[in-house]
Amino acid sequence: MSAEARLKQLGIVLPNVPAPLRETVEAVATPGALADLIAAAVGEPIPPTLPAPELTALLHSRMQHLLERVQDVYGPHPAGEFWVPHRLGGGAPTLAEAARLDAEEASQRAAARAARQRADPAGASE
Fold it and tell me: pTM of the full predicted structure?
Protein backbone atom coordinates (compact mmCIF):
# COMPACT_ATOMS: atom_id res chain seq x y z
CA MET A 1 0.00 0.00 0.00
CA SER A 2 1.33 3.43 -0.89
CA ALA A 3 2.02 6.00 1.78
CA GLU A 4 -0.75 8.21 0.40
CA ALA A 5 -3.25 5.32 0.55
CA ARG A 6 -2.14 4.50 4.11
CA LEU A 7 -2.67 8.12 5.13
CA LYS A 8 -6.16 8.12 3.63
CA GLN A 9 -6.92 4.87 5.46
CA LEU A 10 -5.89 6.58 8.71
CA GLY A 11 -8.13 9.54 7.89
CA ILE A 12 -5.21 11.88 7.25
CA VAL A 13 -5.52 14.23 4.31
CA LEU A 14 -2.65 16.56 3.45
CA PRO A 15 -4.00 19.31 1.19
CA ASN A 16 -1.68 22.21 0.43
CA VAL A 17 1.06 20.91 2.72
CA PRO A 18 4.67 21.83 1.89
CA ALA A 19 6.59 18.93 0.36
CA PRO A 20 9.07 18.41 3.25
CA LEU A 21 6.23 18.05 5.79
CA ARG A 22 4.23 15.82 3.45
CA GLU A 23 7.27 13.56 2.90
CA THR A 24 7.88 13.33 6.64
CA VAL A 25 4.30 12.33 7.41
CA GLU A 26 4.26 9.88 4.50
CA ALA A 27 7.51 8.30 5.71
CA VAL A 28 6.01 7.77 9.14
CA ALA A 29 2.88 6.25 7.62
CA THR A 30 4.71 3.63 5.57
CA PRO A 31 4.32 -0.04 6.50
CA GLY A 32 6.67 -1.12 9.27
CA ALA A 33 6.96 2.40 10.67
CA LEU A 34 5.29 3.71 13.78
CA ALA A 35 2.19 4.74 11.83
CA ASP A 36 -0.20 3.20 14.32
CA LEU A 37 1.37 5.16 17.18
CA ILE A 38 1.57 8.54 15.53
CA ALA A 39 -1.29 10.78 14.52
CA ALA A 40 -0.91 14.06 12.68
CA ALA A 41 -3.27 16.81 11.63
CA VAL A 42 -2.53 19.85 9.54
CA GLY A 43 -4.81 22.85 9.73
CA GLU A 44 -5.67 25.49 7.22
CA PRO A 45 -3.12 28.28 6.73
CA ILE A 46 -3.65 31.37 8.86
CA PRO A 47 -2.83 34.55 6.95
CA PRO A 48 -1.06 37.13 9.12
CA THR A 49 -3.76 39.79 8.78
CA LEU A 50 -4.51 40.34 12.47
CA PRO A 51 -2.46 41.94 15.26
CA ALA A 52 -0.01 39.52 16.90
CA PRO A 53 -2.04 38.90 20.09
CA GLU A 54 -5.13 38.04 18.06
CA LEU A 55 -3.14 35.80 15.70
CA THR A 56 -1.66 34.02 18.71
CA ALA A 57 -5.12 33.43 20.18
CA LEU A 58 -6.42 32.19 16.81
CA LEU A 59 -3.43 29.87 16.38
CA HIS A 60 -3.92 28.47 19.89
CA SER A 61 -7.61 27.87 19.23
CA ARG A 62 -6.97 26.12 15.91
CA MET A 63 -4.19 23.97 17.38
CA GLN A 64 -6.41 22.99 20.33
CA HIS A 65 -9.13 21.93 17.89
CA LEU A 66 -6.65 19.85 15.84
CA LEU A 67 -5.25 18.24 18.98
CA GLU A 68 -8.69 17.26 20.23
CA ARG A 69 -9.64 15.89 16.80
CA VAL A 70 -6.52 13.71 16.70
CA GLN A 71 -7.06 12.56 20.28
CA ASP A 72 -10.66 11.58 19.52
CA VAL A 73 -9.63 9.56 16.44
CA TYR A 74 -6.72 7.87 18.25
CA GLY A 75 -8.82 5.95 20.82
CA PRO A 76 -9.70 3.75 22.56
CA HIS A 77 -8.23 5.43 25.61
CA PRO A 78 -7.42 3.34 28.69
CA ALA A 79 -9.26 4.78 31.67
CA GLY A 80 -7.07 6.35 34.34
CA GLU A 81 -3.78 6.14 32.43
CA PHE A 82 -1.45 9.06 33.22
CA TRP A 83 -0.99 9.92 29.54
CA VAL A 84 -4.67 9.95 28.60
CA PRO A 85 -6.31 13.40 28.69
CA HIS A 86 -8.70 14.04 31.56
CA ARG A 87 -11.54 14.83 29.13
CA LEU A 88 -11.18 11.29 27.73
CA GLY A 89 -11.27 9.58 31.12
CA GLY A 90 -7.54 9.51 31.75
CA GLY A 91 -5.38 10.55 34.63
CA ALA A 92 -3.59 13.45 32.92
CA PRO A 93 -4.29 16.79 34.62
CA THR A 94 -6.54 19.35 33.02
CA LEU A 95 -4.86 22.48 31.66
CA ALA A 96 -5.92 24.38 34.79
CA GLU A 97 -4.53 21.66 37.07
CA ALA A 98 -1.29 21.52 35.08
CA ALA A 99 -0.90 25.30 35.37
CA ARG A 100 -1.47 25.09 39.13
CA LEU A 101 1.08 22.26 39.47
CA ASP A 102 3.62 24.21 37.39
CA ALA A 103 3.11 27.30 39.54
CA GLU A 104 3.57 25.27 42.72
CA GLU A 105 6.77 23.73 41.39
CA ALA A 106 8.13 27.14 40.33
CA SER A 107 7.33 28.52 43.78
CA GLN A 108 9.11 25.63 45.49
CA ARG A 109 12.16 26.09 43.27
CA ALA A 110 12.24 29.81 43.97
CA ALA A 111 12.01 29.16 47.72
CA ALA A 112 14.84 26.62 47.54
CA ARG A 113 16.96 29.05 45.51
CA ALA A 114 16.32 31.84 48.02
CA ALA A 115 17.25 29.52 50.91
CA ARG A 116 20.53 28.60 49.20
CA GLN A 117 21.32 32.27 48.61
CA ARG A 118 20.62 33.12 52.26
CA ALA A 119 22.86 30.26 53.38
CA ASP A 120 25.66 31.30 51.02
CA PRO A 121 25.21 34.97 50.01
CA ALA A 122 28.56 35.08 48.18
CA GLY A 123 27.52 32.16 45.96
CA ALA A 124 30.69 30.21 46.75
CA SER A 125 28.91 26.86 46.52
CA GLU A 126 27.55 27.48 42.98
Answer: 0.54
* Reported confidence tier of residue 107, pLDDT bands at 50, 70, 90: very high
Domain-embedded: residue 69: no
Q: What does the alpha-carbon distance between residue 94 and residue 76 come to, in Å, rounded to a whole number?
A: 19
Write out the residue range of the structural domain in which residue 120 sits.
Answer: 93-126
CA 62 to CA 113: how far, in whole Å? 38
Number of domains in the chain: 1
Domain for residue 110, yes or no? yes
CB atoms within 10 A of CB 120: 11
